[in-house]
Amino acid sequence: MKITQLTVENHKRIRAATVTPDGNMVIIGGENGEGKSSLIESIETLLRGKRAICKDPVHHGADKAIIIGKFDNGLIVTKEITPDGNAKLVIRGNVSSTPQALLDSFYSEFSFDPDKFFNMGGQKRLETLGKIVKSDFTELDEQRKQVYEDRAQAGRDVSGRQSQIDQMAEYAGVPAKEVSIGELMAELNAAVATEDRRKKLDDHVAQLYGAMQEEEKKVANARQAIAQWQRAIDMAREKCSAIGIEYGDAVKTARSAAVIDTAPIQAKIDALEDTNRKVRANINRRELRRSFASKKADYERLTQKLNAIDAKKADMLSKAKFPIKGLSFGEGDVEYNGVTFDQASQAEKLRVVIAMNIALNPELRAICVRTASLLDAKNMKILADLADEFDTQIWAERVGQGEECSVIIEDGMVKKSKIKE
Questions:
Q1: Does residue 225 have a pLDDT over 70?
Q2: Domain of 57, in residue numbers
C-alpha cells in the first residue's frame, strides 16, 4: 500500500500543499523554516493517534488543520485537528476495524523515524530483529556469554597451575609421607636431661672440692698454733677425713656418668626436617597436578558446551527468514554482511532499515527520511535505488532547492513541483 496523494492545510508551518507522488522517491526541498518538515511530519500525524499531534498543530490564524491521505488500495484518510489538539478521524473505503486500529496496523516504529534504528543500542536492534524473524537469541547469547567466561576462567586456572607445576621442584628418594620426629625429639630430651644431671654432679664436685680446700687451709692455720689448737686440728682432721670420703665417692659417681654428645641427634633431626620439607613439596605438586587435570577437564567440557550453543544458534539462524540477505545476529548487535551495524556504511544502514521497516510493516510501503540533507549525491542515488529495489515510497526531507527535489516548499506552500499536484 502506497500514498497516491497527500493534501495538507494549515498544519504547523504548512498553509496549503498537495503532493501527488510520481514514483517511489519523493524529495521535499526548501530552505529552513519554510515548512518542509511540517509536510513530512503530516504523514505521521495523519496515521498515528493523538500521541503524534504536537503541542501547536494548527497554523497560526487558522481555526483547524486538515490532512488528507489517499492510498492506492482505495482508502481515503482525513484528519481534522483543532488548536487544542483534538482530532476528528474519518476513513472512507473498506474498513474492517475501528479507524485508528486500522491505521496503527499500517506503520512500524521506523516508518517515520528510521534514525531511531540507527541510534538505538545494539541489544535493542537484536531484539527488534528477533521479533521479525521470530527467533529470540537473548537467552542463548546469555548462556554462551556465561559459558565463555567460565571457560576463560578455567583456561586461566589451567595455565596458572601448569606454570606453578613447572616451577616446583620434584624430589626423588624421599618418602611419600612426612616422617615423625617425635622419637628423635624424645631421645634428644633424654640426652639433654642426662647432661643436665652430669653438670649438676660436676658442680657438686666443685663445691666439695672447694670445701675441702677451705678445710685444708684451716688445718694449715691450726698447725701454726698446734699448742693451742691441737684439739681443733684433730676435729678438723676428722671432718676433713669425712669430707674426703664423701669427695671420693662423689668423684667416682661423677666419673661414672657418661658424657653424651647431642650433636649427632640434632643432625638427624635437621636431616629429617629437610626430608619432610621435600615430602611436603612432592605432596603439593601431586595435588596441583590433580587440580590441573580437573580444571583442564572443565575447560574441555565448557568448550563442548560452547560449541553446542554455537551449533544450536547456527541451526536457528539457518532456519530464520531474514528481511534481507546478509542480515544476521551478531555478538551484541545486528550484523550485515559480516559487519556490525555501527560499522556498516550509510548506504548499508539505509538498506537494512528499509528492509526492517517493510518486514515490520508489510501493509504500508512508505518511510520518511528526515535527515536526507546529511546524504551526499552518491548516497541520495543509493536511497533512490533502494526505494525501487524494495518497491517502497521514500519521503525525504532535504535543505535547499536543488534539481533533485521533487517538491519545493516556500512559506508553507508548494513553490515548485516536478510531479503532479
A1: no
A2: 3-107+361-417
